[in-house]
Amino acid sequence: MAAETVKNVALAKAINESLRRALESDPKVLIMGEDVGKLGGVFRVTDGLQKDFGESRVIDTPLAESGIVGTAIGLALRGYRPVVEIQFDGFVFPAYDQIVTQLAKMHARSLGKVKLPVVVRIPYGGGIGAVEHHSESPEALFAHVAGLKIVSPSNASDAYWMMQQAIQSDDPVIFFEPKRRYWDKGEVNTEAIPGPLHKAKVVREGTDLTLAAYGPMVKLCQEVAAAAAEEGRNLEVLDLRSVSPLDFDSIQASVEKTRRLVVVHEAPVFFGSGAEIAARITERCFYHLEAPVLRVGGYHAPYPPARLEEEYLPGLDRVLDAVDRALAY
């Protein structure tokens, strides 16, 4: 393995380098969004790309999310592969109609003749002390819509390769980027052969209970497993990576081994993605489970002011409490 192919970079930098590689590889790839060009994005994820590829490839748009996505749909119809950035999670809703009514439906509406290879990048989740509308986790709203792929990396390597795969996909992909993990570093092998985009990964082997998470909560679950190990408990951590489609086969395989499952996500538990996982795994693994599937997430309430967000977000103690309850059965 050549040293220059392996880099230790932050998750945000990994996405930047992945976008750079896509721009270099395919002249039909475009990047669009508010402040993505000269500023390089508010999180500097697109830093330097407009300078190197020009204003016709990395496009600063007006503050108009519906217009950004609508324009991307038109460009995709003409053969381009647009990657659009929604600056913050809470800003996506003006574009919700374009995404769920047009972007998600065109393939079915045209009986498979029209493809829309659009990637919608959304920095999401809390944990950075932001103001209102800047810390939402709306992934379940999009996962409910047929025709969209929903993914979220938890580390730099996955961020790099999942972005490559999302851009190459002929289907629209909603790419949720865990903003609280933007500065977490990890090794990226730019010459690796990536696994399937929607395949979950076991990131810590265990036998007593499975913790399933994606995006920002994977690191927390690893910390929970490390804390539980000090008490003699052996927890498995499963990084789901994809919310739609969900890799139920990998979840089932883990649960058949550990016989217990706790699902963790930042989004509210009520009607969240964890509910679908709990229902499906209960159906699939009824005779293997030794405890009900438990869920840990946000509360069914508007996201609070920054000074209260640590009370709202799942933390070590709340997840460990769910682990204790599952193991008590």
Notes on the structure:
Helices cover 35% and strands 21% of the residues. Strand 6, helix 7 and strand 7 (173-178) form a beta-alpha-beta unit. The strands form three sheets. Strands 3-2-4-5-7-6-12 form a seven-stranded mixed β-sheet, sandwiched between helices. The protein is an alpha/beta fold and 329 residues long. The longest helix has 15 residues, at 11-25. Helix 3 (65-77) packs parallel to helix 4 (96-103). The protein contains twelve helices and 14 strands. The mean pLDDT is 97. It is globular. Residues 9-184 form the Transketolase-like pyrimidine-binding domain. It comes from Streptomyces shaanxiensis. It holds the Pfam family Transket_pyr. Keywords: Oxidoreductase, Thiamine pyrophosphate.
Give me some keywords for this one:
329 residues; alpha/beta; 14 strands; 21% strand; thiamine pyrophosphate; Transketo_C/PFOR_II; Alpha-ketoacid dehydrogenase subunit beta; Transketolase-like_Pyr-bd; THDP-binding
